[in-house]
Every structure is written in structure tokens, then in C-alpha cells.
Amino acid sequence: RKLDNVTVVVLGASGDLAKRKIYPALFSLYQEGLKPKTWTIIGYARSELSDEDLKKRVTPFMPKPDGRDRSSSNSVPPSPNSTGPKKKEEPLTLEQKLEKFFEDCHYVQGSYDEQQDYERLNKEIEKYEEGKKSNRLFYLSLPPNVFLDAANNLGEFCKTKSGGWNRIVIEKPFGRDLASFQELSEGLNKSFNSHEIYRIDHFVGKEVVQNLNVLRFANVIFDPLWHRSNIKCVQIIFKEQLGVEGRGGYFDHYGMIRDVVQNHLMQILCLVCMEPPVSLSPEDINAEKIKLLKAISKIDKEDFVIGQYRAKNISGKEYPGYLDDETVDNNSITETFAACVLKIKNRRWDGVPILMKAGKALDEKVLEVRIQFKDVPGNLYTEHKVSPNELVIRIQPDEAIYFKIMNKIPGYTDRLTESLLDFTYKDQKKSINIPEAYARLMCDVLIGNENNFISEEELSLSWKIFDPVLEQMEKLHMTPEPYAFGSRGPVEADYLAARHGVKWSETE
Ligand code: BG6
């Protein structure tokens, strides 16, 4: 049965995340025919805006109208007065779809901490719901200092009492450390129950991350290989080419470990390293992630390298350093790069270094998992270079899964070469529709699929892993290693890997 009567309230509608990600995600659901039968989208923020102003702000981030878009079944209904043979329905153009989408979008101005503003918001919502049984989704696209005020006021004044569901979506930062995370959780739990809270981690919504369980648990070949007896190391690498670009206000207070490693990369780590769950229910998957997180040893500051990018002139263009950014404190020692080695103390992974690396202003944009296998025992090809096998799971850009194997060079030769068993998504004959991570997850919230969301316990355990080392770094005032804009990051990250007997294997 198709979901009906949903009000989506986007709090922080005038902000960056809302216009770049949330509205385009909602439009994508509209385009794919995945929206509820009827919905109203209410943007809520402090700025004085009209519905039209909001539309103007959001439009530049929507798909570009470049002629007819035939991707969906939405079409112009035939005129009720038309006579004669039925004309074939004309598909809507992208412009028409956007127009139709925006007809359901409205804006309400209000503060985040005033009770009467939420009472007014509730009245507005009721106006569009017209007394029907309806469901409400509150998306908190807000700065962390107003999370709790907003959640508590929504809980008190804006929940539907019509018999439909209420759901609240919150996104990192989930606190800045264990204590602030616990405070946030306690506050949230006062207003919403555990099935109403959706903690989103948009990396989990990325298509190839969604494929990790399938790759591991719907294939027989990987199971026996996925073990310390065959695997030399696991690497999870996230590199961005952009610097902080004016987002320093938020970033400078958090840094790369809190912004990406403690949450996004740990989620990927869990999916790569957890044991097979008993079933695919959210509870069973969660139980395995928790078991894994509990098995990760405390990290020492020696297992971390942090860096900060410096200005660099590349081909005549000057790229500013982190400290040159106007939104960043001149003396900041916040890390824009972090590399670390984790150890998992269980039967599958004991002794296998798990390397993670994340950085801004680096030489390439990539997010990938690399499983490096051990050298061939008793190698017969001593005259040749035999590279160990490697499974690469490239999440972005250019989604792919490929396996590096040794092959004989065809022809009158005995020489060997490294070849790829390559599944690159875009090379497939059938065109593949890869949804945006936010759209995928928004769809899950609407249908109540809790599978792809992060539990309170997972986050708490993840904080327990990183909290001591972060505290230590802060106490010692640890200064990050400088690295040039556009480089591979500080060379100390290579020494870190070498200390664990391995090498970073990302494409160079
Ligand atoms: C966000 C981080 O969660 O993820 C940003 O706060 C980062 O610093 C971003 O740039 C990367 O996401 P994506 O999906 O664009 O790779």
C-alpha cells in the first residue's frame, strides 16, 4: 500500500546542506515516483523568506533543465474535456517536474528555541494536512548547538496526534566527544522514542556501501578468504581535493577525525569487518556491528598521524592553505588529515592492521576500501614479480569492484602480469541508476526501514574508541604535520603504515 499524507519538515531549510542535498534528494524521490501519494514539504528556518525565495535558493542545486526528461512515469494528465481518440501522453519536461515539485513546497519562518514558533509551525502543518490521518518527518539540517532545542520543541508541539507516525532525522556531528554525545542522546530520548529517531550517516547510503553485505554474504568465494590467514591488511581511504572552502566555522571546531573518521569511516569498517549477521534485520546487523566495535583495541596517539594543508602554487594557480581561510582561526591546530591504524582483537582479524586515512586538499578525490592479501606461499615464480592479490571496492568516484590477480601474458612468453577482474558500474551494458546517498536514505526513512541508520550504542562505542586519543592530543596540544595542497598528505602516514609492515596502496 502506497504511503500517503506525509509532511516533511526541513529545519534549517535556508542552510547549505538543505539546498545542496536535502531538497535535491526529495526531488529525486519525486522524479523516481517514490514520493508518498501526497506530501507537503515545509522548510523552516530563521531567515525571512517567502515560498518563492526558498525556491530560488534551492533551484541552482536541482538537476539542470536540459530538455525532456523521460526518466519517470509522471506525465501531464489528459484534459478532462478532450474528445476523440486518446492522444499519447507527453512526458513532463524537467522544468515542468520542478514546477510540480515546488507546488508542494512551503516555507515557515521561526526561531529554533521559541515555544510559540513551534506552536505556529504545528498550526501550519495542520493547515496542509486538512484533518486527515497523517505522518510527520522532521529533518534536522541544523547546527549542533540548536539540535536539542529543536528536537525538544518538535517533540512537545509538533508531533502528529492523528494516529500516523512521527520520525526525526538527525545527522552528525553527534556530539564532539562521548560526554556531549551522551548528553545529546539523553535529550533526544526525552522527546522521541528509539523507533522514531533516525541517525543518518550519508556514507552508508552510497551505492557501493549498500553492496558490501551482498558482496560478502551473497557470494561463497569471499567467505573463506576474509580472514587473518589470507589478509595482510585492510585500508579505508577517503581523499578530497577541495580544502575547507569557507566551512571553517564548523570544521575548525571538529577536525578530520571527528568529521569523517569516527563516524563515516567507522561505519564502512563495521560493514567490511563484522561477522555475518543472523538475519538482515536492523537488530541483527546492529548486534554484529556492536560486537565488532567492542573488539577494537584502544588507539594510542602513536597509531595516529595528523596533518594540516599549506598553500601551494599549482601550475600558476595559488591554492590557499588551511590557515589562510577566513573562517579558520590563525593559530588553529585542527587536523585536515588523519591516518590511523586500528587493531581488532577477535579470531578473524587479530594481527591484521586496519588502516584508515582521510584528508582534505589532497591529490585526488576517492573513497575506497582495499583488501590486501598476503604473498603467495611457496611462490614458484621466483624470476618474476608476483604482486599479492588485492580486492578494491571503490565507492566514489566511478563506482567499481575489482580484483587484482596475476595472469600469464598471452603469447610466446612465460612472463606474468597483473590483471583486473573488473566490475566497473558504468561499463555495464545495462544502464545503472545510482541514487544519491541522501535520496536513498530519505526513501528509507519514509518507508520506515531502520536498517541503514546508526544506533545510539554504535555511536557511543565509536566515541569510546576515539575519545581517549582525542583527549590526549588536545592535552598535548599536538600539532599537525604540514602538507602541501594537492599532495598525498604528510609522509609520516607512509612511515605509520611501514611500522605495521604494510604500504598504502591507493592509486597514485
Ligand atoms: C561530510 C563532511 O559529512 O562529508 C565533509 O562533513 C565531507 O567534510 C563530506 O566533505 C563528504 O561527503 P561526500 O559524499 O561529498 O563525499
UniProtKB/TrEMBL annotation:
<dbReference type="GO" id="GO:0004345">
    <property type="term" value="F:glucose-6-phosphate dehydrogenase activity"/>
</dbReference>
<dbReference type="InterPro" id="IPR036291">
    <property type="entry name" value="NAD(P)-bd_dom_sf"/>
</dbReference>
<dbReference type="Pfam" id="PF02781">
    <property type="entry name" value="G6PD_C"/>
</dbReference>
<keyword id="KW-0313">Glucose metabolism</keyword>
<feature type="region of interest" description="Disordered">
    <location>
        <begin position="58"/>
        <end position="90"/>
    </location>
</feature>
<feature type="domain" description="Glucose-6-phosphate dehydrogenase NAD-binding">
    <location>
        <begin position="9"/>
        <end position="211"/>
    </location>
</feature>
<feature type="domain" description="Glucose-6-phosphate dehydrogenase C-terminal">
    <location>
        <begin position="214"/>
        <end position="504"/>
    </location>
</feature>
<dbReference type="GO" id="GO:0050661">
    <property type="term" value="F:NADP binding"/>
</dbReference>
<keyword id="KW-0521">NADP</keyword>
<dbReference type="GO" id="GO:0006006">
    <property type="term" value="P:glucose metabolic process"/>
</dbReference>
<dbReference type="Pfam" id="PF00479">
    <property type="entry name" value="G6PD_N"/>
</dbReference>
<dbReference type="GO" id="GO:0009051">
    <property type="term" value="P:pentose-phosphate shunt, oxidative branch"/>
</dbReference>
<protein>
    <recommendedName>
        <fullName>Glucose-6-phosphate 1-dehydrogenase</fullName>
        <ecNumber>1.1.1.49</ecNumber>
    </recommendedName>
</protein>
<dbReference type="InterPro" id="IPR001282">
    <property type="entry name" value="G6P_DH"/>
</dbReference>
<dbReference type="InterPro" id="IPR022674">
    <property type="entry name" value="G6P_DH_NAD-bd"/>
</dbReference>
<comment type="pathway">
    <text>Carbohydrate degradation; pentose phosphate pathway; D-ribulose 5-phosphate from D-glucose 6-phosphate (oxidative stage): step 1/3.</text>
</comment>
<dbReference type="InterPro" id="IPR022675">
    <property type="entry name" value="G6P_DH_C"/>
</dbReference>
<keyword id="KW-0560">Oxidoreductase</keyword>
<keyword id="KW-0119">Carbohydrate metabolism</keyword>
<comment type="similarity">
    <text>Belongs to the glucose-6-phosphate dehydrogenase family.</text>
</comment>
<comment type="function">
    <text>Catalyzes the rate-limiting step of the oxidative pentose-phosphate pathway, which represents a route for the dissimilation of carbohydrates besides glycolysis.</text>
</comment>
